[in-house]
Design goal:
Strand content: 15-25%
Structural class: alpha/beta
Number of domains: 1
Shape: globular
Number of helices: 8
Distance between the termini: 15 Å
Helix content: 25-40%
CATH superfamily: Luciferase-like domain
Radius of gyration: 17 Å
Length: 250
């Protein structure tokens, strides 16, 4: 089965402009792409201009009608879960049920945790991520109203850095895996096998999401089990190169 195809953009530099991102997302939808996803960072190395992906996704939701949208990935340990619950439900309903929530523990090597008073220890962030996911599901499931547009809930894709095993166990409890730093399709084949063993035969659909530069042949990744193949542009995307990839089609 062919993987769905999406654009994956860092809202940095000249693309730290929600209007530009909305125009690009609308163009991607018109060209037949299946999704438009954004990085989620407060700070990143030497990047001086960053947009908030959640505000940008509101603009994208209003400029599109069909493509899946989401931030890949949002570090739950630096978010207030009750606020995120309200934001995700509002955006899911605004978009007509098109939101995906990508989550991870995040990393402090860009100065996104410690400098702002958030926990920098990876084990503590992992604990907060697991607790946050359970609480988020409870809030979506009736503690807050209205509920998400999607049933039974907004899909959750869990990020994990190769070759760590713990994120696979976490992802298997939810709806998808977004592996980071895979050395090749063979590694995805191994991860997909492990996740399927953890989930069992009757656990329902599950997404395996990979990102590669523009022009990458998706076929080896599809054969390895990828259900989404994202076209990414690194930390310094330009509107021109993203537009070129969009116009080339999925």
């Amino acid at each position: 089965m062919a993987a769905r195809r999406a654009i994956f953009v860092a809202p940095f530099g000249e693309l730290a402009d929600a209007r530009r991102l909305a125009r690009l997302a609308a163009a991607a939808e018109a060209q037949g792409w299946d999704g438009f996803f954004l990085w989620d960072h407060l700070a990143y190395e030497d990047v001086s201009e960053l947009a908030d992906p959640w505000v940008a996704m509101t603009a994208i939701a209003c400029a599109t009608e069909r493509v899946r949208i989401g931030a890949l990935v949002t570090p739950l340990p630096r978010r207030r879960i009750q606020k995120l619950a309200r934001e995700t439900v509002t955006l899911d309903r605004l978009s007509g049920g098109r939101l995906v929530l990508g989550v991870g523990i995040g990393g402090d090597h860009h100065g996104e945790f410690g400098p702002f008073g958030d926990p920098a220890d990876p084990r503590e962030r992992a604990r907060l991520l697991d607790e946050g996911l359970e609480r988020l599901a409870e809030l979506w499931d009736g503690e807050f109203a209205p509920p998400p547009a999607q049933e039974p809930r907004i899909p959750i894709w869990v990020a994990g850095r190769w070759p760590n095993r713990r994120p696979l166990q976490r992802a298997a409890r939810w709806d998808g895996l977004f592996p980071i730093d895979l050395p090749g399709p063979e590694a995805l084949t191994e991860q997909a096998r492990m996740v399927r063993e953890l989930r069992g035969d009757d656990a329902g659909p599950f997404e395996f999401v990979v990102t590669n530069p523009a022009g990458t042949d998706p076929a080896p990744w599809e054969q390895a089990g990828a259900t989404w193949c994202l076209t990414g542009f690194g930390r310094a995307p330009t509107e021109a190169e993203v537009r070129e990839a969009i116009d080339a089609g999925p």
